[in-house]
Structure formats: structure tokens, C-alpha cells
Specification:
It is a single chain. With 269 residues, the protein is mainly β. It folds into two domains: 131 residues, Immunoglobulin-like, CATH 2.60.40.1120; 105 residues, Cupredoxins -  blue copper proteins (Immunoglobulin-like). Helix content is 9%, strand content 43%. The strands form seven sheets. Strands 11-17-16-13-14 form a five-stranded mixed beta sheet, with no helix packed on it. Strands 2, 19, 22 and 23 form a four-stranded mixed beta sheet that branches. A hairpin with a 3-residue loop joins strand 20 and strand 21. The protein is globular, with a radius of gyration of 21 Å. It starts with a helix and ends with a strand.
């Protein structure tokens, strides 16, 4: 008889919804008019000794003559590659974001652009987001800025030692653009947090980004400072993350029209 299967199906549906993979997850973040929003400011500090730079020999491999002209390279083509940049104890390239917020200010109308230039990728640390339903372009693009150099951007979602390919797109000429917005639809809430970008032609070309699920984020500069504005009054979990240092999460209360301060200290691995 087939009727006994109906309660099982109903139970499975109930579990699907209750675990947040159904209606709750599909709802996602909601942009609303934020009245009397507060501001969160702070600084991300670094404790310990930054790791030594990776010394990359650009005089070897593909397009060696061109790549060895990197602005940071020595006369013999050796380039120091700093994965952790610290200035006076302040951590550069940390992403600070609110974790537990489901409604608030709208997303910025912007395109995140990664430039493949001088056999390098800029910016080194950024953010990316999973595009909303119906949006297939305009959120993230990659541009080849090097003349007569084939670059091959390869994007991954990283979790621990595992990598999931999101896209692999050759850019053979200067000015070529790869819009990878639709490819980021493969990122999954609750699983994908770290986006890694590399050139398959020059594997020393790397960049990282945090996957964000709401517009409350900031990337620190040399001063380690960050500001999150238009935050609805409430208590939130705030995370400071760096791809090669780790992350720290703290709780803070932001009052209406108020300013809260929250500093982070990330420790050398």
C-alpha cells in the first residue's frame, strides 16, 4: 500500500523546514529601511610575529621576463609575497562582519573587481556574495590588465583542505573580462565561507575573500580600522577573519543612534 508513505513524506518535509534548509533559508537576508541605526567601530590587532614572506622566483616559469618586472621584485626576479601584513600591530586585510542578522540596510550597488595585473591579483583580500535569485551578472568580475599575457582565473570555495571549483575561465588578452557572478550560485549557506582565487598559468598569483551573507562587512586597511554603519539596534555576533591568521567572534550590543566600539586581537598561528 502507498498510503503509509504519506506520513513519512510529511515528516521529512517538517524536518526539512525545521532545520532551516527550507523556507527559512530560502528567505535569506531582507533589506529594510533602517531607522535610528547605530554604528560599530573598532580595530583589528595582531599578536605575535608575522610569518616571513614567501620568496617567489619570478625569473622561472611562464612569462618569466614579464612577471619578473613585478614592482616588488628584486633585480634578479625574487619577489617577497606577504600573506600576513601588519603595521604597528594593526592587521591589514581582515574582514569584519555581522553574523546573526536577517534584515537591515540594503546591499551596496557595486561590482567587486579582481585585477590580474603585473602577474599579481588585486585586491589581496576582499568579499564576495552569493547572487540573489535572478541575478546572473554584475556582482563579481575579473579583468586581465597585463598585455600579451594569458591568465587563467580559477575560483574555489574552500573548506579546510577541501576545494570546490566554482569557475575556470581563460583571459588571453589585456582588457578581457570574466563576469563570474552566476558561477557563485554554487556557494552554499552554512558551508562556504572562504573564496580563493588563483591563476592556473601562474600559481603564485593568489587572492582570498570572505563569503558574506549580508551587507554588514568591512575590510581593514593598514590601520586595522573598520566601521559598520546603519546597524539596527540589537545584540550581534561580530567576527574578524583573516584567511591566514584565523578568526575571532565577539558579542556586542548596538544602541539606537549610538556608537559601539569593539576591538579584536588575532594571534599568529
Amino acid at each position: 500500500m502507498k498510503t503509509p508513505m504519506l506520513p513519512t513524506l510529511a515528516g521529512a518535509m517538517a524536518l526539512w523546514l525545521a532545520t532551516g534548509t527550507g523556507l527559512v533559508q530560502a528567505k535569506g537576508y531582507e533589506a529594510v529601511d533602517v531607522k535610528n541605526g547605530g554604528t560599530l567601530t573598532g580595530t583589528v590587532l595582531f599578536k605575535g610575529t608575522p610569518p616571513d614572506p614567501i620568496m617567489e622566483d619570478l625569473s622561472k616559469g611562464k612569462n618569466a621576463e614579464f612577471c619578473a618586472q613585478h614592482p616588488d621584485a628584486t633585480k634578479d626576479g625574487m619577489r617577497p609575497r606577504h600573506k600576513v601584513q601588519v603595521t604597528d600591530g594593526k592587521l591589514n586585510g581582515a574582514v569584519v562582519f555581522i553574523q546573526n542578522i536577517d534584515k537591515g540596510k540594503d546591499w551596496k550597488d557595486e561590482t567587486i573587481q579582481f585585477d590580474f595585473k603585473d602577474c599579481d591579483i588585486f585586491p589581496k583580500v576582499s568579499v564576495v556574495r552569493r547572487p540573489p535569485r535572478g541575478v546572473r551578472e554584475g556582482l563579481v568580475q575579473i579583468v586581465n590588465q597585463d598585455p600579451d599575457i594569458l591568465h587563467n582565473p580559477h575560483g574555489y570555495a574552500v573548506k579546510g583542505a577541501q576545494r570546490k571549483t566554482l569557475f575556470n575561465k581563460p583571459l588571453p588578452s589585456k582588457g578581457d573580462v570574466a563576469d563570474v557572478t552566476k558561477n557563485l550560485m554554487r556557494m552554499r549557506p552554512g558551508r562556504d565561507q572562504h573564496f580563493f582565487l588563483q591563476c592556473d598559468q601562474h600559481n603564485f598569483m593568489e587572492a582570498d575573500a570572505r563569503v558574506v551573507w549580508n551587507p554588514y562587512y568591512a575590510v581593514t586597511g593598514k590601520d586595522g580600522a573598520f566601521t559598520l554603519d546603519q546597524v539596527p539596534a540589537g545584540t550581534y555576533k561580530i567576527t574578524a577573519w583573516h584567511p591566514y591568521v584565523g578568526e575571532v567572534t565577539k558579542e556586542v550590543t548596538v544602541g539606537a543612534d549610538g556608537t559601539a566600539n569593539l576591538d579584536f586581537e588575532l594571534t599568529s598561528k
